[in-house]
Design brief:
The chain has a domain of 78 residues. It contains four helices and two strands; from the N terminus they run ααααββ.
Length: 130
């Protein structure tokens, strides 16, 4: 006795199109959330950098007995930034993440005077200390 096996393996075009449509729908929902999460993370990192710069500025002013209108530079506050104490290393690591790979400390932040909070030069409207 001979048994005929007529097995067709694989997916039909309709099944593949349904899977692609579901993946596209999930991607359309997920991608805006990833962009928003990335923007929020960059803003939080920048604000933490601004807090660190402000704290270093205040410590510098207290230890060197500076007036509130004194304006330190990066080399003056580098020992207070809590990193390596090296101005070159701090300028390479303390940057606004929204600035991309070409950003440096000088293109990211304005230290300002002791009485004023430091400012982000990349996105000053959203990255600011209150």
């Amino acid at each position: 006795m001979q048994i005929k096996k007529n097995l067709k393996l694989g997916f039909t075009l309709v099944e593949i199109m349904i899977v692609v449509a579901i993946i596209g729908l999930l991607a359309a929902i997920a991608i805006p959330n990833f962009v928003k999460a990335r923007t929020t993370a960059q803003m939080n990192a920048c604000m933490n950098n601004l807090r660190q710069i402000d704290s270093a500025k205040q410590q510098w002013a207290l230890e060197t007995r500076q007036a509130t209108n004194a304006s330190p530079d990066l080399t003056a506050i580098s020992p207070y930034l809590g990193r390596s104490g090296n101005a070159a290393t701090n300028s390479a690591t303390l940057v606004c993440p929204a600035g991309g790979t070409a950003a440096t400390f000088l293109t990211s932040y304005n230290i300002k005077s002791v009485s004023e909070p430091p400012a982000c030069l990349i996105l000053p409207s959203t990255h600011q200390l209150q």
